[in-house]
Each structure stands twice: as structure tokens, then as C-alpha cells.
Amino acid sequence: MIEVFKTNVQETEQSQMIVKKLLEHFPDSTINFDLEDCDKILRVYALSICSHTIIEILRSHGYHCEVLS
Fold it and tell me: How far apart are CA 48 and CA 37, in angstroms?
């Protein structure tokens, strides 16, 4: 399963910190950012994904995140 999110993460250092935090909650997943994309894409690959939890983790660190449809 894959879920794609639109974010406002700008810097590589920010994205690395967020990936680390997300992997604490979803250790068996693959997570990456595409900061070159205009939507600053966050991709999460996992057997099961809780979009609400991912959005809340980013929000708790001051970032906007929404499911890209």
C-alpha cells in the first residue's frame, strides 16, 4: 500500500527528522520525500497506513500535511 501526502516541508534536514519520527511509529515502512515536487511530496509505503496519525505527527512538528488525491 502507498499513501501520498502534500506537505510544506522545505529543507532536507527537516524531511530527515520527519522520516525518523515517522519510522518510530511505522518501523516496517518505507518513507521518503520529494522536495523537488511543487507539493513537497511525502510517500509512505507500508502494509497498513494510518493517514490520520501521519498527518498528526507532522502537525505536531509544525508542518502542514494532507492526503494528496
Answer: 25
Side chain identity, residue 11 = E
The answer to whether 28 and 46 are in contact (CB under 8 A) is yes
Distance between CA atoms of residues 2 and 30, nearest Å: 9
Residue carrying the nine cell digits 494528496: 68
Q: What are phi and psi of 16, to 5 degrees?
A: -65, -40
Helix (H) / strand (E) element for 51: namely helix 51-60
* AA identity, residue 50: C
pLDDT tens-digit map of 9-68: 999 999 999 999 999 999 999 999 999 999 999 999 999 999 999 999 999 999 999 999
* Exposure letters 23-50 (e unless 16+ CB within 10 A, then b): eeebeebebebebeeeebbbebebeebe
